[in-house]
């Protein structure tokens, strides 16, 4: 099957960790300190996804991302970039293996409807391939739109 037919529906859990405790004892300029402690998150994102096309299959994996966000009252725009690993039951002409590695990035916005609860809207570009472990290895590019519900612990 060809990558142009690749259609996926992910369900996942996103665990974001504020980096404030990592940088609290390091001397740095105040603006940089704010960026590194308040606006930067480390994200672990395990997921499972149903594949609808080219055939019914599934994939599962984990992404590791860095997210930069800034909160303006109820809105918090963000950008993110990361990597990860995934396994797919879908066989494609572009990949010689079913174990693949991801590069991904995108952006979005949180809308806070309560102080610690938000709805997120995200665009994500994801490229995955087997990283040259076996031929073929042309890779597959996926454009995703994600909607999520977030709870922020204090």
Concise account of the structure shown:
The chain is mostly beta strands and 154 residues long.
Describe the structure.
The chain is mostly beta strands and 154 residues long. It contains two helices and eight strands. The chain has helices spanning 20-23, 30-37; strands at 7-12, 15-18, 40-53, 57-69, 75-88, 99-114, 117-129, 140-151. Strands 1, 2, 3, 4, 5, 6, 7 and 8 form an eight-stranded antiparallel beta sheet that branches. The termini are far apart. The mean pLDDT is 87.
Residue stretches low in confidence (pLDDT < 50, at least 5 long) are none
Q: Report the radius of gyration as a whole number of Å.
A: 18 Å
Structural class: mainly beta
Give a quick account of the main beta sheet: strands, pairing sense, barrel closure.
8 strands, antiparallel
**What is the helix/strand order?**
EEHHEEEEEE
Rounded mean pLDDT score: 87
CATH architecture: Beta Barrel
